[in-house]
Amino acid sequence: DHINPRIMGVIRSTYIANPDFTPSNAAKASSAAEGLCKWVCAMDSYDSVAKIVAPKQEKLAEAEAAYDVVMVSLNAKQADLQQLIDKLKAMEDDLEASMQKK
C-alpha cells in the first residue's frame, strides 16, 4: 500500500509517460516483458487509487468509532427505557388489582 513516491515518480516519468510502453509492444519482445509491463501499469493504477481511497478509509474509521460510541449510548438508553416500561407495567398491574378489589 505504501509505494515510495520517488520510485513512482521515476516509473511514471520514465515508463508510463512513454507511449511505446504498452503490453502489446512488450509482447513483441517476450511474454515475460508483457507481464512485467502489465504489472508496472497495474502498480501505477493501484498507487493512484490508493491515494484517493486512503483518506476515505481514515474517515470511515473515524465514523465507525463515533458510531460505536453512539450505539453504546443508545443501548444504555434502550435498557433504561425497558426498565421504565417494566416498572410502568407493574404499576398498571397493581392499579388494576387494586381496582378489582374495590
From TrEMBL:
Instruction: Supply the Pfam families for this chain.
Output: MT (PF12777)
Main location per UniProt?
other
User: Which GO BP terms, alphabetically?
Assistant: microtubule-based movement
Source organism: Pyramimonas obovata
Residue ranges annotated for the Dynein heavy chain coiled coil stalk domain, each copy included: 6-94
Its keywords, alphabetically, are: Cell projection, Cilium, Coiled coil
Q: Name one GO molecular function term.
A: dynein light intermediate chain binding
Please report the name of this protein according to its UniProt entry: Dynein heavy chain coiled coil stalk domain-containing protein
List cellular component terms (GO).
Answer: cilium; dynein complex
Top-level taxon of origin: Eukaryota
Subcellular localization is given as: Cell projection, Cilium
Give the coiled coil ranges: 71-101
